[in-house]
Design brief:
Lipoprotein; about 230 residues; 9-stranded antiparallel β-sheet; globular; about 60% strand; single chain; 4-stranded antiparallel β-sheet
Amino acid sequence: MRIIILTLFIFISCKNEEIVSTKNNIAKENKIIKETNKEVLDTIFFDFENNKSDFVVVNLLEKKFNEDSICNVEMKLDFWNNKSKIGSETIQINGFDENSEFFGIYLDSLNPSLKTIHIGYPACAYQQNGFLFYTNNNNVQLLYQFMEFSDSGWGSYVEFFPTNKNYITSRRTNFSPDENDSTKEDMGIVEYLDSLTFSLKNNTWKVNQITPKEKVYKREKKSFEEFHKQ
C-alpha cells in the first residue's frame, strides 16, 4: 500500500482526452477566471470517476530561479466544491520541476474532507512534494507538507493511518538496500521516523510530533518482497 499513491501519480500523468476536456469544461461552468498576473497551471481532481465537483485550481503566483538555476515557485490552490469556491491556500516549492504533474487523492474514501495533493515529475527517482489538506464548508487548512521519492521500489514514503474522522497518525518509512548483506540481493533496511498525530478539535487540526524530528526510532531488515507485501 505504501507506494500505491506514487504509482498512481506516475500512471495518471499520461492524461487522456476525457480528463483534459473535463478540466476545460469545469473551468467554464464554474466561471473560473484567470486572475491578473496569475497563470493557471492545472486542475486537480481527487476522484475523477465519481466526484467531478470536488477539485482544486492551481495558480502560479511567482517563479524564480536562484544562482544555481534551481526553480522555486509560489502557488495558490483554490478549492472548489459543488460550483462554489470554499477557500484557498498558498504553498511554496523549492526545486520545482517545470515538467511537474499534479495529482490528488482522498486520504480516506469515507472522509473526503481529508485529501492529499502530490506535485512533481512523474518518474522513478524524482522527488515528489506532498501536501495534506482538510476542507470543510468554507474552511481550508494545510496540515502537513512532506517529500517522497521512489526508485524501483526503494525509497522514502510518508504513510497516514486514519483512526477516525477526527484523528490520524503518520510516520515516514525509508527502505534502502542492505549493502552489508551479501547473501541476498533483495535484502533491505527499513527505518521508521517522524511519527506524528493529527487531531481535530473545534474545527481546527492540531499536529503533534511524537518522535524526535528526523531521528530513526526503529530499524529492521526485510526482503524486498516482504516489505511490499505489507
